[in-house]
Amino acid sequence: PPPPKKKTKKKSMKYHSIDANLFIKNRKKLAERMKSKAIAIFNSNDILPSNADGTLPFRQNNDIFYLSGVDQEESILVVFPDAPMEKYKELLFVKETSEEIAIWEGEKLTKEAATQATGIKSIFWLKDFNKVLKSIIYEAETIYLNDNEHLRADTTVETRDDRFRKWCKEQFPDHNYERVAPIMHYLRSVKEAEEIELMQNACNITGKAVDRILKFIKPGVMEFEVEAEIMHEFLRNRSRGFAYTPILASGFNACVLHYIENNQECKDGDLMLMDFGAEYANYASDLTRTIPVNGKFTERQKEVYSAVLRVMKRATSILRPGITLNDYHHKVGEFMTEELLQLGLITSEEVAQENPDWPAYKKYFMHGTSHYIGLDVHDVGSWYKPIEAGMVFTVEPGIYIREESMGIRLENDILIGEHENIDLMKHIPLEIEEIEAAMNG
Fold first, then answer.
1. Which residues contact 18 (CB under 8 A, 6 or more apart)?
2. Is 406 in contact with 269 (CB distance < 8 Å)?
3. What pairing do the DSSP bridges indicate for beta strands 398-401 and 406-409?
4. Is the distance from CB of 71 to CB of 60 less than 8 angstroms?
5. DSSP state of 377
6. What are the strands, taking DSSP E only, across 108-182?
């Protein structure tokens, strides 16, 4: 009898499979914003080297993932809405797999599995890319190329997109070239329902970790022990791990905004600022809580905590469709100024004489309040265009009093709704009473 047919399945990840309809919708949105007779090309990220023959864990390029759901290296996506033939409108090139590759490196996408995961029917092996591209590229007038145009991007390391850009312009110098990043930034900033579900799952996993560590933290534990507890909870819930390097800062460490050493003992009477979030299916969550190591806030700690919490709630209430992030941050600065005056940390004279470029409140609250979040922790999106429903932002005010070795920051992830905002972390303890009850229950 003939051998049994192999089952088609998606390359296995920790996270559950994502319905290909999400990526079909995302490609359709891209196609609608492209110029006529234009082709867009997206590359996967490289597997980066560490030392000797070692490599860093692979993390996919977010744009190709957003458009295809492909979560493996050496992949190229081509979108050509005006292609002369239907089969060339969407093309995916993946690394050729074999039994031997499966033995040494694990399962890779087959052509059938790639179609199942992405909704793209025309799948080719990567080795055929040059030949296939050349057969259609002259039917296009414009080539959209991708680049990491993030405001904070460190572009020291050359990416696969960087190398491809040089190659493409050498091979096809007479085409018009356009940046696809502005289109992608807008598309990714407004989330589909399926994306919100993935982000909610990331937030739920983060919440489970919070519940776990509120029962674990006490005087004498080390910051890295808390980090280990969080990571355990992440992994057992299908998260790859932290969406960004976690901050677990007790005592004065909480006044260092990007403290990541996490190597000190948590002491009785101190606060512990914890800024971390789970990643799920490449989508990020971003939470901050500040808790008393011994399970009880002092009166002074309650006073400052309550001030931060009031700013957080007021900021969330004005983060609505129509406002720009610049105007929003200016308004939040006014909220913080009121609280710092009440706490006696700044004076009305300092406010009256403040430098508009560095207001008086910046002495105790020196960072921004909100940023986009999605496939990136600091996700892409415009700081100058009005906020729209479907966008997701963090809200994270803080007060840092170095002279008192006290840093308090609170942060939740907020979905902007048509009629009201939705707090994706509303189930995670935030109020003083909730924190103390969870730590002493």
1. 69, 117, 194, 198, 281
2. no
3. antiparallel
4. yes
5. S
6. 122-125, 142-145, 176-179
pTM of the model: 0.94
pLDDT in tens, 397-429: 999 999 999 999 999 999 999 999 999 999 999
Q: Residue 289 has which token pair?
A: 């809580």
Rounded to 5 degrees, φ, ψ at 394 are: -85, 155
Is residue 299 within 8 A of residue 258, CB to CB? The reply is: no
The torsion angle over the Cα atoms of residues 251, 255, 258 and 263, rounded to 10 degrees, is -20
Tell me if 104 sits within 8 A of 139, measured CB to CB: no
- How far apart CA 31 and CA 143 sit, in angstroms, is 13
Give per-residue burial for 290-318: e unless 16+ CB within 10 Å, then b: bbbbbbebeeebeebbbbbbbbbebbbee
The Cα–Cα gap between 196 and 67 comes to 16
Q: Rounded to an integer, what distance in angstroms lies between the CA atom of residue 69 and that of residue 198?
A: 13
Report the alpha-carbon distance of residue 401 to residue 403 in Å, rounded: 6
Instruction: Decide: 408 and 385 in contact? Cβ < 8 Å.
Output: no
Residue type, position 33, single letter: R
The interaxial angle of helices 223-235 and 193-216, nearest 10 deg, is 140
Read off the pLDDT of residues 131-182 as tens digits, 9 standing for 90 and up: 999 999 999 999 999 998 787 777 788 899 999 999 999 999 999 999 999 9
Half-sphere exposure of 236 (CA within 13 A, CB side): 9
Phi/psi for 303 (5° steps) reads -60, -50
